[in-house]
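Hey, can you fold this one?
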Amino acid sequence: ETTPKRVGILQLVEHPALDDARKGFTDRLAEKGYKDGDNIVIEYVNAQADQSNLKLMSQKLVKNDSDVILTIATPAAQAVANETKEIPILTTAVTDLVSAKLINSNDKPGTNVSGTSDMTPIEDQIALIKKLVPDAKTIGLLYNSSEVNSKLQVDIAKEVAEKLGYKTEMMTVTNTNDIAQNTQVLAERVDVIYIPTDNTLASAMDAVGKISINTKVPVITGEENMAKTGGIATVGINYYKLGQQTADMAIDILEGNKKVSEMPVELQTDPQVYVNKEMAEKLGIKIPKELEEAAK
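Sure. Predicted structure:
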């Protein structure tokens, strides 16, 4: 009788993209014959975006001798990496593992961390503004300043937007409590708002959506779930597929085929355009012909 392998999962917070990544991961494991309670034991914990929870939960997963730990979102990855240099850590929904100081390089991580990046096609996302809001002059950039991944994306978005001749206005939030007020202030100054794959804002997109409708300022988002729940459009990756990709990496580790330190970070190859039809109607935005297929 072989003892079941232990797989720990630490998720930063609940919102659709991160939940999808986790579901993709566990579904793919099961599909490949790794069923929870059978030949593996999955221990799932969620930190509810709380820093002290992240630390305690990381210590617990390390203490329980996990064979591999999946971390979902940058702060979760950083928390577990602080607790162990031995147990293989796979991460998903992290934009840039290098700038998060988790690995040495994407090709050769050189640490006990690798995984899948959710770096999105920011240029394509900004290009949607021309198509949906052709008269826009000023783009508002909204994000949580303490999320490394968001800062990185916003810096790219600002550069892309300014190259295309847009003016940009930055606005940050520190937690979900100041989202409504800060979004309102920003919406009054700009023609369109861009939000990256920011965990804080992703968990409160309905509040953003209400302001978008009231001020008639559309919101372009970093991923599809955010566009469905308050934004108008994105060119986004599929987090469920990203989770599946990460599970394939986990299987390689569990079967002893590969060392995590030598596994390159993987990206997703075919981002999809999505336009929120209902939101376009509420904002009085005409969807151009070329985007009609993407409108749902």
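Residues 111 and 261 are 5 Å apart (CA to CA). Let me know if you want another pass with a different chain boundary.
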